[in-house]
Design a protein that fits this description.
By secondary structure, the chain is an alpha/beta fold. It has 10 helices and 9 strands. Helix 1 packs parallel to helix 3, helix 4 packs across helix 5 (150-169) and helix 8 runs antiparallel to helix 9 (227-241).
């Protein structure tokens, strides 16, 4: 399968690396890139060796967002609302695939992350930003509104006030400001966002895979539930995990003063 604009690999630590690969175009996104990324996400989800996934871009940019040059081509400008809706839903399907990915996801953002590319980044569990990162929610500059679920993801991370300020002014958000307001989770050193994302991914990969999966599910549930509902789910999941081989292995490793060898069972 030829995917010239996507680079995908799985390393020895079980980290899947999914990188946009149009560096000469600042990784501007094409519809086929969404299709290719979705196929790779499915592959990584089914691969038992994969413990964590890192999403980023080759070269000096995370992604400049949708390729506006393509949008301006004859036959594309002025397309009817139904066609525009279908185009938006196609992009949304990719972001939804990241949200539903069954393993931890980390976005490593450097340079510009613009438009729909912001949705891909914010759909990840953890966002690591380089000092030169710039998040551009500049939809209004081209007469558009947020798309691909960006509104939901942005409000969820920074709150309604900051979300309105960011979208309505269309001013870029620096890496440092992104961390300050909760748009990103960590500011990496210059040119080291990918390296730092890999370090975090490896730390996550050392944990029991079943417990990692359930911990993510519980935290998402807790965000919109009551204390009693969250505690009840924790109790049931904890009881089930107590019967797993990984939990038994953790207890043996603790007694034997060695690192555990988790198998995801």
């Amino acid at each position: 399968m030829s995917e010239p604009f996507i680079r995908y690999s799985v390393d020895a630590d079980g980290i899947a690396w999914l990188l946009w690969n149009r560096p000469a175009e600042k990784n501007a996104l094409l519809p086929e890139m969404t299709d290719d990324a979705c196929r790779r996400l499915d592959e990584a989800a089914a691969d038992e060796k994969v413990r964590c996934l890192v999403l980023s871009g080759e070269g000096e940019a995370f992604s400049a967002g949708a390729d506006l040059k393509r949008l301006a081509e004859p036959g594309r400008v002025g397309r009817n609302a139904l066609e525009g809706h279908a185009r938006g839903q196609h992009g949304t399907a990719g972001v939804r695939k990241v949200l539903g990915f069954p393993k931890p996801t980390i976005a490593a953002v450097h340079g510009p992350a613009a438009g729909m590319a912001c949705a891909w980044a914010l759909a990840c569990d953890i966002v690591v930003a380089a000092p030169d990162a710039r998040f551009h929610f500049s939809f209004l500059r081209v007469g558009f509104v947020t798309d691909c679920g960006t509104s939901w993801l942005l409000v969820r991370r920074v709150g309604i006030g900051q979300a309105k300020k960011i979208v309505l002014t269309s001013d870029p958000v620096s890496g440092a400001d992104a961390v300050r307001i909760g748009l990103a989770d960590e500011l990496a050193e210059a040119s080291s966002d990918l390296q730092r994302a890999g370090e975090i991914a490896r730390r996550i990969g050392e944990r029991a895979p079943l417990a990692v999966r359930e911990a993510r599910r519980i935290l998402e549930f807790a965000r919109t539930s009551s204390f009693d509902e969250a505690a009840e789910l924790e109790g049931w999941v904890q009881g089930a995990l107590g019967e797993t081989e990984d939990h038994k292995e953790a207890l043996r490793a603790f007694s034997e003063k060695r690192p555990p060898r988790f198998q995801g069972r």
